[in-house]
User: What shape does this take?
Amino acid sequence: MVAPFLVLTDFTPAADHALRYAATLAAAVEAALVVLHIRRETLLDPDAFNGSIRHLSEGEIAAALQQRVQPLGVSTTVESAVDGVEGAVADAVRRHSPALVVLGKPATDTTPDELVSTTSLKLLRATRTPLLVVPSGSQAPVPPHCVTIAADNNSFNLKEQSAGVQALLQKLQPHLMVTHVAEPENSDTCQDALEAVTKSGLLAGNNFRVHCHGVRHRRVPLGILQAAAETKADLLVLVARRRSFLGQLFNRSITSQVVLHGQLPMLLLPSLD
Assistant: This one.
């Protein structure tokens, strides 16, 4: 059984797109949704910088939530929070123990890098729960048929909150690919990366072959996105190491840069390392 998905909404087009994605994915694996309304100024919203946000009344929020969840066709609980994003999401995670938190990402061409990076950091730090980022322009099929996992050659240990992702993969049984980015002068073999993913337990319960795809690139984030394109990934899985999402330089981390520039759904898995 797959735990529910916690979907964050601020009623923007990006959030609506992520909600539809989450509902379709939930239906495929027989999971429920918890839809949590968060004030727009706390999410990935460029309007937070120009003061053009219109604040909604409680009645308007309730009506907007119902308008969005009625057509979904899956079991859904709706909630609204008045606290900041960290406290509200952490509280919802404690109460619902979701398999993952789902966040919509608007087109970032005009969105400050810091806004995108900081929001992801806050959610990973506050919940230590897998985070699914769905770009607004993504046309990836749902459920995903091809899942590419980006990994380096170092071992990693997943937090217990990632058990829901393991159950999700068992339900989906997608074509799985592990990719590793190497310097141009180095070997692009990814057997060590595959071994690290296997030992983490992420793929427990999957009884089919996992393929490897190596890439050579000077810049690891761009190499990961290149690998996702070459493997025709529908979903890109990234291991967010503890030092990345707790560190002061998160906005310069590999994970953050991939999230910033990626155009397909990306699943961030917080590790213990």
Notes: Residues 42-52, 246-251 have pLDDT under 50 and may be disordered. Residues 188 and 214 are 5 Å apart (CA to CA). The first helix runs from residue 13 to 29. The two ends are 28 Å apart (CA to CA).
